[in-house]
């Protein structure tokens, strides 16, 4: 029998880092009702670069204080139908990248979507949370209190 891994207690909102994307200490909503993790992006399109289909996007949007205009490019990506918060399906691009939450760094699938009209630019879903974290809905920024180094 495998020993049980100790789960980390997190709040309903936490600061997260995306080190491979150059985004640090961005607020995320913890959503156990959502299956996938979503990241706010815009100008999302597939271009042919050197004959290779390449997903190009900009993180966040010009109204966000962390916006940099930097275009990110991924040669490896998927396209999936995902049910949005309104219950309808939409086509989204999925990338794999590292997310740092507290002391844990997790390589995870992230759906790219326009969350410009949502309060939080990042939504962490249960696929990422499962077997790693316990959510205390009465708390916020638990990782920040226990881990001062977020880079």
What is shown here, in short?
The protein is mainly β. Helices cover 6% and strands 52% of the residues. It is built from two helices and eleven strands.
Choose one word for the global shape. Answer: globular
What is the tally of beta strands? 11
Helicity, as a percent range: under 10%
Number of helices: 2
Order of helices and strands: EEEEEEEEEEHEH
What oligomeric state is this? single chain
Strand content: over 45%
Question: Strand pairing plus helix content: what structural class?
Answer: mainly beta
- What's the Cα radius of gyration? 16 Å
- The residue ranges in which pLDDT falls below 50 over 5 or more consecutive positions are 147-151
Q: Quick one: biggest sheet?
A: 9 strands, mixed
Instruction: Report how far apart the termini are.
Output: 35 Å
General description of the model:
The protein is mainly β. Helix content is 6%, strand content 52%. The protein has helices at residues 126-129, 142-146; strands at residues 8-11, 13-18, 23-30, 37-49, 52-59, 71-74, 78-83, 89-101, 104-113, 122-124, 133-136. Strands 2, 3, 4, 5, 6, 7, 8, 9 and 10 form a nine-stranded mixed β-sheet that branches. It is globular. 25% of the residues are buried.
């Amino acid at each position: 029998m495998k020993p049980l891994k100790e789960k980390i207690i997190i709040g309903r909102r936490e600061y997260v880092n995306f080190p491979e994307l150059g985004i640090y200490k961005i607020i995320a909503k913890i959503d156990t009702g959502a299956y996938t993790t979503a990241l706010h992006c815009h100008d999302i399109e597939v271009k042919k670069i050197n004959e290779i289909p390449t997903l190009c996007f900009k993180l966040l949007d010009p109204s966000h204080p962390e916006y940099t205009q930097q275009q990110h490019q991924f040669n490896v990506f998927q396209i999936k139908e995902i049910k949005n918060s309104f219950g309808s399906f939409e086509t989204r691009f999925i990338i794999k990248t590292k997310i740092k939450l507290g002391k844990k760094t997790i390589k995870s699938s992230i759906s790219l979507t326009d969350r410009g009209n949502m309060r939080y630019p990042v939504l962490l879903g249960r696929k990422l949370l499962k077997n790693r974290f316990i959510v205390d809905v009465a708390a916020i920024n638990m990782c920040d209190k226990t881990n001062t180094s977020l880079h």
